[in-house]
Amino acid sequence: MVQPTPGLGGEGAALPARDGPALRVSGLTKRFGDRAAFEDVSFEVARGEVFGFLGPNGAGKTTTVRTLGTLIAPTSGSAEVAGLLLSPQNGEAIRRRISVMPENPGLYARLTVRENLELFASLYGLRSPGERIAMALDAVRLAERSDDRCGRLSKGLRQRVGLARALLNDPEVIFLDEPTSGLDPVAAREVHDLINGWRQRGVTVFLTTHRLEEAERLCDRVAILNTRLRSVGSPKDLRASLFGGSLVVETATPLPDPRAVFAGVAAVREWTDGGHGAYVLSVADPRQAAPQVARAVVAAGADLVSLAESQHSLEDVYLQLIDDDGSAPQ
Amino acid sequence: MSGPDLGRLLAMTRKEAREFRRTPFILGAMVVLPLVFIVEPLIDIFRLGSSTPASAVQKVVGVTFLLMLIVPAVLPSTIAAYSVIGERDQGTLEPLLTTPVRRSELLLGKALAAMIPSVLVSYVIFGVVLLAAHLFAANQTVVATLSNGPEILAEVLFAPLLSGWSIAVGTGISARASDVRIAQQLGTLASLPPLAVTALVSFQVLTPSVPVAVGFGLGFLVIDIAMWRVVAAMFDRERLITGARALAARGGGGGGTPPGTVRRIQMVQGGDHE
Questions:
Q1: How many alpha carbons fall within 13 Å on the CB side of residue B245?
Q2: Using CA of residue A115, residue A118, residue A122, residue A123, what is the dihedral sign?
Q3: What is the pLDDT of residues B183-233, one digit of tens each?
Q4: Helix (H) or strand (E) segment spanning residue B226
Q5: Kind and range of the H or E element at B140?
Q6: What would the mean pLDDT of B24-28 be, rounded to a whole number?
Q7: Which residues of A touch B97 (CB under 8 A)?
Q8: How far is CA A55 from CA A103, A185, A237, A326, B102, in A?
Q9: Using CA of residue A93, residue B227, residue B225, residue B85, what is the dihedral sign?
């Protein structure tokens, strides 16, 4: 397990509170010529929130991160990052308050882990670089590999060096672009632990990922982007708003006349036959509908094998939203 | 707007120097070029007899001075041409630009790292040639001409100024190029024109004198400063980053769920109520 370290994702050193959200984005648009990378994007991210940013390839996620990270100027709209208005004048001040870890951690292969971190510590103007570097290395469990050249590290280890680098300046907002891409489950789990440590300390994490189960596990809220923002909310709220409630009924043998059985239950709005005695019922309130359904099935003379509320994953939400969007980029 | 932060500038220089030391191509160039540029002029100098005509002596001296200035003119351009596009190719530019480092600190830090070794190597070559000529050359005219004040002043002044031009041009090309090799080839070519000017002095088309050396030195300085302003303006974060993204896309990176391959609804039976 990666150890949360005080001052670098541990629980001991909370960040000083600032007013306002960590990120406030309003009508932000970025165009490259005629092509919109993202368009009219608006959302807020509270301080200390782990915010997932999801979307298909080409949806504009990385461009959004680059824009909020002051690397790219928006075409229109406005944003505040770590309490500062996104503007060329504030670029340097914003970069002091944030960290960005791109999908490719971008390490100098010929330099050692420590030398890579020394460079960035100097660029951030840290007062006690040695101490900060040691803490960052401890946080990602890389102290023993600090004298290894980065070009000789595995992808997982390089990713951890990138995370250590992101911790150096004790950022208020960390942008992570696909931080677990290409990592094995154990390494990915270590990254998750680190992100949870940051959450406990009040660091805001802006996480772009393709791993929906990762977003579901880590994120307080997620935004789904497909050039335009399709939805923002907690995974639970998104599921509820898109799919409502549904029940899955399984009988020992197929019902002779399921239409008659389910038509008699007022709580059932519609149903589909899944085959082999399985039926999916759309209901407003699964808890209220379940007893009625059970009674109706038993009254019809069927042997009820199981009756359960169906669980839609965040993946279902994602796929539904992206599929609904006729302008999905290829 | 305050000036460059010295700590960040030197951090960039230190990083570059560390990378150079571990890059065989650059190390090799730093070792092989001095050997070539020491041996070749020394052979010419030692072949001069004591009664060689003055015109032949002057020709050898001219070639020697020109060779001395090729190192600071050509070597840093190769390094500089790699400086930006190399960072972009290995994916290090984006993390670098997300730090508070300023454009001027980044560019000057890189320039210093390329200039210092090139100029030092040039001075060492000149020193070795001068010393060897003093100790072993049969022709005393060549020794006297090589030790002439204006020539030495020109050498001392022109080396860093040629290097400055070369680095500025190389960096500018690197900031706009899409291929490392093309950038290096163009950088080398673009570093050569100022040598034509120094050749006028080396071959005494313009008689070497302190005013001539200083005058040309000032001229180079003005051109260097102007060139650096142009290069700084060419270093555009957005252009560099979006260019990097295009390169990554060509590399076939990225995974995840492609749009259009939609699986409708995955029902998970059982489980807890939320």
A1: 19
A2: positive
A3: 888 888 888 887 777 777 666 677 767 777 788 888 888 988 988 888 888
A4: helix B210-234
A5: helix B140-146
A6: 83
A7: 71
A8: 15, 22, 18, 14, 32
A9: positive
Q: Are B153 and B213 in contact (CB under 8 A)?
A: yes
**Backbone angles phi and psi of B239, in degrees to 5:** -65, -45
What count of other Cβ atoms lies within 10 Å of the Cβ of residue A84? Answer: 17
Strands A76-81 and A23-32: antiparallel
0.90 exceeded by the pTM?
no
Phi, psi of A144 (to 5 degrees): -75, -15
Whether the Cβ atoms of residue A221 and residue A53 lie closer than 8 Å to each other: no
Neighboring chain B residues of A99 at a CB cutoff of 8 Å: 98
Nearest-angstrom CA–CA distance, B155 and B136: 22
| Helices B6-21 & B24-47 angle (0-180, nearest 10) | 80
- How far, in Å, CA of B211 to CA of A133, rounded? 53
CB atoms within 10 A of CB B185: 15
Q: Which residues of A touch B254 (CB under 8 A)?
A: 57, 103
Interface test with B, best of A38, A115, A119, A206 (most B CBs within 10 A): A119
Q: Of A145, A78, A70, which is closest to residue A115 (Cα–Cα)? A: A145
- Using a CB-CB cut-off of 8 Å, the residues of chain A touching B257 are 56, 210, 318-319, 322
Pair of tokens at residue A148: 């290894």
Test mutation, B84, B97, B98, chain A, max A CBs within 10 A: B98
Main-chain dihedrals φ then ψ at residue A188, nearest 5 degrees: -65, -40
Which of B98, B102, B263 is opposite residue A69, by nearest beta carbon? B98
Q: What is the pLDDT of residues A27-71, one digit of tens each?
A: 999 999 889 999 999 999 999 999 999 888 888 999 999 999 999
